């Protein structure tokens, strides 16, 4: 193994491969900052260029973009409440609240450091655990996915700051939005109202940018002239960094997020998004300061941001060992490998060790580059909050519209984002929590498809689930989560009353 | 575009010399690819386009117009100006299947047909420790009890429906969003077998996690020369899907002919064959008229099967 890694660094230490790693990481960060222009689009654009490179160089470049995005997606989430990526949606909640309290630097700093730790942990996991974890991926069939998604949905019990009824209502809306488009089994269209743009469903970009970004714009317009607090410009380069308490509170969330994200990221289908929500819910449940969640708890940034980064690393395991892409981005990477005549799969380690280890080595280096790159810029990004509000609002509007437009290249998505902006504004004013909506929207389609596949396999017999221990385990977890969420919900409120 | 038209309208005579000099096509041709960049359809079309450029002497640019299960690209081409500058990729899915399933803005009569250039290859495989060692055993078992198979969709599922109708087997179709997911479900023994293409199946076949029972196409897989086709194993069926190009109807016939010649020649280039093989496809230079006939025949044949399986729109 050490030999392999050394060989990998040997492969990496050419001018070409080092520059590709750097370019990939930088591009990835930029792409992450710009909502809408997701990693899949960027990699697709760069694919023809990568054909001119050797396969190792091509994958180093494309992989750099992929994990770089997970770093960059945080910045707009924290500063403007615009999720750069779907997996950064949850960061908007507490990251932006921190920025309003003058702790934007701490939020961005902890996100970058958490991402680095989680990313490195993820690569270690890929290196050490690939073969056994590949078996885990295979063990997941329709029953297991359906139960996992149900467990994910039960997390809404923890988002229920606004009350269980409201959270459940939002989850139903999310499930409905997720069901727009083609029926996953028969392929017939549902709720599309003859609009071609809806055939492939409601896109995540108009949904997330509208609900979070544009709705915030309306709040800004109503809130008078109150500016967000900004810390005094720091005397040192790293002066914006988290303070001692924030560090202490973030350590465990980063560790838990890293492990959680890695395992969830392994599984095909929405890994990183689920991982970030899962981590948020876990931290909210375990924290000593539940009353701060939603109002700027650093755990709510540290955990999810770590989880989505180790998730991106985890997704490499099925790709490299089984040749199975677990999301749209790794599917493109698979395509890139095939174009170069490389067949990913169990044989890759024997046939192309230089490629396998070169990519692993580049991921270590890439994560380090991203850390070095991101930390000094934290101060720079935080200054963006000093921009007068009328300019800031214009920038948010511009970013949201361009982001929405660039994902699908159609007007309808922009209109949809505007509608979601108004809906999001009204819901938030009405005290509704948008987390359950997005969570249900992301998990719903997989839940539906898996459940219906499972029923096709069992010929409609729901009791067959007893033959699937993993699925049963998830069902028990969901029941436990729902119960504990409902039973223990009152406690924090009491503490809060006593404290304040 | 509009300015050019205006020029043509107002000062047509001024344009004449240049028109006479430059034979058609005068500018770049756009091919709308129905699937995302990096996928097999995209890469293979890019390979053909690169060859066609050399023949037509104008750039042939690729625009990925994904969505609508592969119908967005042909739908856009159908409504574009019929000048031969906008084409789209279309295969079985867009032409023979989806018109039965979705309410589309086009019919098979909305197009000018150009040549086909690639054939998808299909195979039937079982998990390594499955009791079925031959196609005959699989079919016998399928007559006794219900077996399930994973596939990403049509036309593989239709092939199996046809077996069900002819041989009284009970093969239950479990759809997966992509070939990789379908193959994974078979490796994990969540289904009894899988019908998919080589790119997703090869890693599992080569590492011994899956066993290939038959090539479901008309030819054997070059990686598994010992495994016969369905026909060779006494089952008169081949799952066939040809990928080709279409443009809007009413493109002047001399332009259709010129494009057809160019793309048919491009499809025969050795570089194209190389790329196709890497993505588990086979070169299929099919003349425009044959490509159109294939799609129309398939459209007619698939209708009853899709309706019987409850997959057609009502």
From TrEMBL, chain A:
Record keywords: Oxidoreductase included?
no
Q: Which domain of life is it from?
A: Bacteria
> Which residue spans traverse the membrane?
20-47, 59-79, 106-130, 136-160, 167-184, 204-222, 259-282, 355-382, 394-427, 470-488
- Occurrences of domain DUF112 (ranges): 18-439
Q: Which PANTHER family match?
A: TRICARBOXYLIC TRANSPORT PROTEIN
What high-level taxonomic lineage is stated for the organism? Bacteria, Pseudomonadati, Pseudomonadota, Alphaproteobacteria, Acetobacterales
Keyword Zinc in record = no
Alphabetically ordered keywords of this record: Membrane, Transmembrane, Transmembrane helix
**What's a Pfam family in this record?**
TctA
Q: What is this protein called?
A: Tripartite tricarboxylate transporter permease
UniProtKB/TrEMBL annotation, chain B:
Q: What residue stretch is flagged as signal peptide?
A: 1-22
Q: Which domain of life is it from?
A: Bacteria
- What InterPro entries does the database record attribute to this sequence? BUG, Bug_dom1
For this UniProt record, the keywords arranged alphabetically read as follows: Signal
Q: Pfam families of this UniProt entry? A: TctC
Query: Quick check: keyword Signal in the entry?
Result: yes
User: Does Signal show up as a keyword for this record?
Assistant: yes
Family membership: Belongs to the UPF0065 (bug) family.
The protein in question is named Tripartite tricarboxylate transporter substrate binding protein
């Amino acid at each position: 193994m050490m030999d392999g890694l050394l060989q990998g660094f040997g492969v990496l230490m050419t001018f070409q491969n080092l520059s590709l790693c750097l370019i990939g990481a930088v591009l990835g960060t930029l792409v992450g900052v710009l909502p809408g222009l997701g990693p899949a689009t960027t990699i697709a654009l760069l694919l023809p260029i990568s054909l001119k490179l050797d396969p190792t160089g091509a994958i180093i470049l494309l992989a750099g973009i992929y994990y770089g995005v997970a770093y960059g997606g945080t910045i707009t989430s924290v500063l403007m409440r615009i999720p750069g990526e779907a997996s950064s949606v949850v960061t908007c909640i507490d990251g932006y609240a921190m920025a309003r309290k003058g702790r934007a630097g701490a939020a961005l700093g902890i996100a970058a450091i958490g991402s680095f730790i989680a990313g490195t942990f993820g690569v270690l996991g890929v290196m050490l655990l690939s073969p056994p974890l590949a078996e885990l991926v295979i063990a997941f069939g329709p029953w297991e996915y359906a139960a996992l998604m149900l467990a994910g949905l039960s997390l809404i019990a923890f988002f229920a700051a606004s009350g269980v009824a409201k959270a459940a209502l939002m989850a139903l809306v999310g499930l409905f939005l997720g069901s727009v488009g083609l029926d996953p089994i028969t392929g017939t269209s549902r709720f599309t109202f003859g609009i071609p743009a809806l055939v492939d469903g409601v896109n995540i970009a108009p949904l997330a940018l509208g609900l979070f970004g544009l709705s915030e714009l309306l709040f800004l317009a109503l809130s008078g002239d109150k500016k967000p607090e900004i810390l005094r410009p720091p005397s040192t380069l790293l002066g914006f960094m988290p303070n001692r308490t924030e560090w202490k509170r973030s350590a465990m969330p980063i560790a838990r997020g890293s492990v959680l994200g890695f395992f969830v990221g392994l599984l095909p289908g929405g890994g990183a998004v689920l991982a970030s929500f899962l981590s948020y819910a876990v931290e909210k449940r375990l924290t000593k300061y539940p009353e701060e969640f939603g109002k700027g708890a650093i755990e709510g940034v540290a955990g999810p941001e770590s989880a989505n980064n180790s998730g991106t690393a985890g997704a490499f395991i099925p790709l490299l060992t089984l040749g199975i892409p677990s999301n749209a981005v790794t599917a493109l990477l698979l395509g890139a490998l095939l174009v170069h005549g490389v067949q990913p799969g169990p044989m890759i380690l024997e046939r192309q060790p230089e490629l396998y280890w070169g990519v692993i080595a580049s991921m270590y280096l890439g994560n380090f580059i991203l850390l070095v790159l991101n930390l000094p810029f934290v101060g720079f990004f935080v200054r963006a909050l000093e921009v007068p509000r009328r300019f800031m609002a214009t920038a948010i509007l511009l970013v949201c519209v361009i982001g929405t437009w660039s994902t699908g290249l159609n007007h309808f998505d922009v209109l949809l984002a505007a509608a979601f902006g108004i809906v999001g504004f009204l819901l938030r004013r009405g005290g509704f929590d948008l987390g359950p909506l997005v969570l249900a929207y992301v998990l719903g389609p997989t839940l539906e498809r898996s459940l219906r596949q499972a029923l096709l396999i069992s010929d409609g017999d729901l009791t067959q689930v007893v033959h699937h221990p993993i699925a049963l385990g998830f069902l028990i977890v969901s029941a436990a989560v729902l119960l504990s969420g409902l039973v223990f919900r009152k406690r924090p409120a009491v503490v809060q009353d006593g404290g304040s | 575009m509009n300015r050019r038209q205006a020029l043509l309208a107002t000062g047509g005579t001024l344009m004449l010399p240049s028109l006479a000099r430059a034979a058609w096509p005068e500018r770049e041709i756009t091919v709308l690819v129905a699937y995302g960049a990096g996928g097999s359809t995209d890469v293979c079309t890019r390979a053909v386009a690169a060859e066609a450029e050399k023949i037509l002497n104008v750039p042939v640019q690729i625009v990925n117009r994904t969505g609508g299960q592969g119908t967005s690209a042909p739908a856009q081409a159908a409504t574009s100006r019929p000048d031969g500058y906008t084409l789209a990729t279309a295969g079985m899915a867009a032409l023979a299947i989806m018109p039965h399933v979705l309410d589309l803005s086009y019919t098979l009569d909305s197009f000018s047909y150009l040549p086909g250039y690639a054939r998808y290859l299909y195979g039937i495989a079982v998990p390594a420790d499955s009791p079925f060692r031959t196609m005959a055993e699989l079919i016998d078992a399928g007559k006794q009890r219900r077996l399930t198979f994973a596939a990403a969709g049509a036309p593989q599922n239709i092939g199996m429906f046809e077996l069900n109708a002819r041989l009284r087997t009970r093969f239950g179709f479990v759809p997966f969003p992509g070939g990789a997911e379908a193959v994974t479900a078979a490796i994990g023994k969540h289904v009894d077998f899988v019908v998919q293409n080589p790119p997703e199946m090869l890693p599992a076949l080569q590492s011994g996690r899956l066993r290939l029972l038959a090539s479901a196409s008309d030819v054997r897989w070059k990686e598994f020369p010992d495994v016969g086709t369905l026909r060779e194993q006494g089952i008169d069926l081949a799952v066939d899907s040809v990928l080709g190009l279409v443009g809007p109807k009413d493109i002047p016939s001399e332009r259709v002919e010129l494009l057809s010649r160019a793309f048919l020649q491009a499809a025969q280039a050795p570089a194209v064959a190389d790329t196709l093989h890497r993505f588990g496809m086979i070169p299929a230079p099919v003349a425009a008229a044959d490509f159109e006939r294939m799609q129309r025949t398939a459209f007619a044949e698939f209708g009853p099967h899709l309706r019987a399986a409850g997959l057609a729109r009502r």
